[in-house]
Amino acid sequence: MDFSRLPSLAAFAHIAQHGSFTKAAAEMGVSRAALSQSLKALEEQLNVKLIYRTTREMSLTEEGQRLFDQLRPALGAIEQAVRDVGETNAAPSGLLRVNTSRIAARNLLEPHLSEFFSRFPQLKLELVMDDGLSNIIAEGCDAGIRMGESLAAHVVAMPISPMLEMAVVASPQYFERHGVPATPADLATHDCVAYRHTSSGAIFRWEFSSPEAKGHSFVVEPQGTLITNDDDSMIRAALQGAGLVQHVDIAVRRELADGLLIRVLREWCKPFAGFYLYVPTRERMPPKVRVLMDFLVEKRELLPAPGQEPSNHPMRKSRQRSLASSRSNRI
């Protein structure tokens, strides 16, 4: 290809797009005479008439229309490529709206907000708290965070947490008073704090899988004296000894590490896909979304996978021994 023709081809495309030498010249910042001379030189190089023109009007010839139809997408692609390079080099800025569940916000975003803003001082972050699966385009959001199992197959998603598990927990004081359930069937005799979904109004049923290699999965309807639609309230109730709670393990890891809560029925809770950052499309991803994705993927490496949570806290070890003694006495 003769790249020296590119300016003349671009000039011709401007004339054809506007249907006017005057408008095209004004947009390009050149004189009408210079634009006319550029077109004349292109026609001579190609040995073809591209535009019929009189003192009052102009129109494309058949060859001119064919050339314009082929140039338009090619020049658009060049313009987008230049824009993409500029966005890559520019510092991320503007408002970044993220639709997220409360659990993900508390455990994946909020602990790192100070570092995120120090890295990207020109960004503003708006967290849209929504525990239901939202259409981020309709909500005007740039990205969303949800569990992998709830995402549609067509969305573009990146894991930002390790595999997770549902954890059944209660305080040591609760187990001292009521004993330790050995199987999910034993929950029928325990006080279980229930969670009601705000969106559907349904009670969340506790999920389990049989410990056998090909064990079946099943659910248990929690029965107890407390129902709440706030998961923080559910954890606070467990800390007070009000009953057993089933929650995503990432939400109670600190309490487990500190020995404030103790986990049971671990072998009945299988790992599942964790949280994902999802976006409408991978094409022309804005720099502000890209840096958030890269940042959360980086922080994912700091989170322990199932079975790797801290276990060296002295208080936890002591209480685990007490729990083990309680379990052996019941057996």
UniProtKB/TrEMBL annotation:
Which UniProt keyword terms apply here? Answer: DNA-binding, Transcription, Transcription regulation
Q: Which GO terms describe its molecular function?
A: DNA-binding transcription factor activity; sequence-specific DNA binding
Renumbered residue ranges of the record's region Disordered: 303-331
Q: Supply one GO BP term.
A: DNA-templated transcription
In this record, what's one Pfam family?
Answer: LysR_substrate
- List the CDD domains: PBP2_CrgA_like_5
Q: Where is the composition biased (Polar residues)?
A: 321-331
Q: Which residues form the HTH lysR-type domain?
A: 1-61
Family in the record: Belongs to the LysR transcriptional regulatory family.
Put simply, this protein is called LysR family transcriptional regulator
Organism field: Caballeronia pedi
